[in-house]
Amino acid sequence: MKSSEYLSSDMLDESLLKSFAPFRLVQMILGSCRVDAKYRFVTSPTTLQRAYSVTCLLVVLICYSTILAHYFARYVAFPHIYYINFVSLFLHYATFACNVIHVRFVNNDSNVKFYIKMQEIDRKLNADHNKIFNDVLFKTNVMSVAATALVSLLLYASALSADAVVTASFAGPLVAQVTSTFEWLNCANLLIYFYIRIRYINAIITNHLRGTADLPVEEYTKNIFPTMKTLRCLASKTHDFKFSDTDVYLQDIFEQLLRFQSLYRFQMFLFCFKFFTATLLTFEFILLGLQHDIIKRFEFIVLPTVTAIDLIIIVVICVRCEAFYREIKTTKYLCITVLSLIYSGPLRRKAIKMLKMIKEKPPHFSVYDMWRMDAATMIKMINLVTTLMVTILQFTLL
After folding, report:
1. What confidence score (pLDDT) does residue 268 get?
2. Sites in the chain below the pLDDT cut of 70
3. 80 DSSP β-pair partners
4. Cα gap 330→374, rounded to integer Å
5. Reported pTM
6. I want to staple 126 with a disulfide (CB 3.0 to 4.6 A). Which of 18, 27, 62, 238 is the partner?
């Protein structure tokens, strides 16, 4: 484990640390934060923090065991429904446990390096002087954390019952679901980081091709999300395609994307597997519960809502990945345009190098090379789940 004394030359800027503060705060409370950040340094989780994570795992396990013993007893007379609920309970806890163990005990040094490399990229791009870059990520993270916390507390409130033991034990699934959801949302929001930096590189090249005469005097910094004109205004003050190492910036972003993929592909595997399996189990439980008239009102509210949240997350991740891929296509188009206008010299060599990087190693977010996170994957997954739901409906009602 690296101590802060070895990271003295890797001090992070306040704006970058602030952008991740919302997730870091709640994940510290839940025992699932990947890094420890103090005094603008990032380090691996301490031994005490890891012990706290193990304690959280044990407490949540006790809550799940209590639910199985006290609440699920009402399903014993219906073996198939009891089996479905037992598998669902095991699936949710296993997803939570695997996620916590992975973020706290695996890839500790890589997680630290990931944050440091993000800072290095921003310093090369001079983006660390433009607060708008990290302000967008900060606002998105705040909204994500606030919305998730609010919805989760409302769902927990709807599950309150007269039995104090059962009510208290429901805190276990609440913590497990919220912990996993925060990790998946953090992954989804990190894609904004890469998207804005690639657009910034495109803004540098666009300024060279079109000039800066069409740019407004003001920067439109009041926009919630920076437009291309805003990025071009910012880029025109610090970068010129003739002199900037744009090819180096692009290579650094591609390498950072590979680090991001290696760190978060396990979470995406867990998420896709959980979404696929839990959706089908929830659907079958609701059908059988309505048939036997044993489903409670809060179950009819909580279970579909959790499934809907997972669906929203997968849509957001795939849409943002698709937006990033499209921005890479724009970079490719701009490089080709440069080659069509310049026939020799360092600018042509720079454009060729960038084009070669995009063609030879096109960036993408894949899950262990089994599937890519993009719009096509999202549609295929939803189609598959829908088809299986129709099949379950036929077997249940016929």
Report:
1. 92
2. 1-9, 128-130, 162, 216-223, 398
3. none
4. 17
5. 0.89
6. 238
